[in-house]
Amino acid sequence: MTTTQALPAPDLDVEEYSVDYLNEVFGPLNFEERIQRLYDFFEEKDVLMTSSFGASAAFMLRLVSDNRPNQPIHFIDTTYHFPETIAYKEELTKLYNLNVVEVLPDPTQNALTRDEEWWKDHPKMCCSINKVVPLDPIKADHKVWISGLMSYQTDFRSHLRIFEQQGDIIKFHPLIDLSEGDYLYWSSLYKLPKHPLESQGYGSIGCTHCTQKGKGREGRWAGTGKTECGLHPGFFVNKQKAS
After folding, report:
1. Of 70-84, 103-117, 152-166, which range is least confident?
2. Could you identify which of 134, 172, 207, 225 might form a hypothetical disulfide with 80, taking C-beta atoms 3.0 to 4.6 angstroms apart as the criterion?
3. For the Phosphoadenosine phosphosulphate reductase domain, which residue ranges apply (predicted)?
4. pTM of the full predicted structure?
5. Average pLDDT, the chain
6. Residue range 99-118, pLDDT digits in tens
7. Does residue 177 lie within any of the structural domains?
8. What is the number of structural domains in the chain?
9. Domain that holds residue 148
10. Residues in binding site for [4Fe-4S] cluster
């Protein structure tokens, strides 16, 4: 994507930026400008990026690879991923020369969720042990967290802004205002490789036990009322500061 407007300079006299201020600055920018601009406000060492290497992952991975090739990409290996997801991760890693960092859950707790099949009766706790808790110490070392969430994906995501405060870290959603049509257009233009399971009817892809075929995210935790793994919900008052 070509930059079409002059980007506003950060106020160098300000050591902290409120979420409201960041949303005001980044709101008029397109998604690529937002990625480029992020590193004027935050040092690379303070930027966290995660990827599940799911159905829509290639879009953000290509975008970051083009604009910040050294950015580490944290992949939470729950040990429950589809073999196709692992193969897709390897494909995208080679294609975009990604710096992937593997994040693993505590082996004892992970084994407990497996032995007792917690995904059946305790899916929230299973996600917490295998996804949320392993990332917590990594989040603590960063100030801002890049996420590829898009508003059309779920009702929860439709209420998010470009920047939101989540505890002590700021979530950054450069793609949040893309429509599904926009996403499909740019994916086609960029010739993004698709996840192997998409052609089999999987619209969203997570762990094997909690993913079924379906449009969008309707195949995730089907029949449970659960729509998110727990990494993204929990936003706090947006007037908190990013230091």
Report:
1. 152-166
2. 207
3. 47-213
4. 0.81
5. 84
6. 999 999 999 999 999 999 99
7. yes
8. 1
9. 17-237
10. 126-127, 207, 210
Whether 199 is in a domain gets the answer yes
- The catalytically annotated residue of 19, 229, 231, 242 is 229
More confident residue, 123 or 61: 61
Q: Which residues are annotated as a binding site?
A: 126-127, 207, 210
Assign residue 183 the CATH number of its domain. Answer: 3.40.50.620
Q: Are 53 and 83 in contact (CB under 8 A)?
A: no
First to last CA, the chain: 30
Rounded distance, CA 98 to CA 83, Å?
19
Is 185 a member of any domain?
Answer: yes
Question: Higher-confidence residue: 86 or 206?
Answer: 86
Residue 182 has φ and ψ, to the nearest 5°, of -60, -45
- Pairwise CA distance, residues 79 & 99, whole Å: 20
Structure tokens at 30: 């397109």
**Annotation marks residue 132 as catalytic:** no
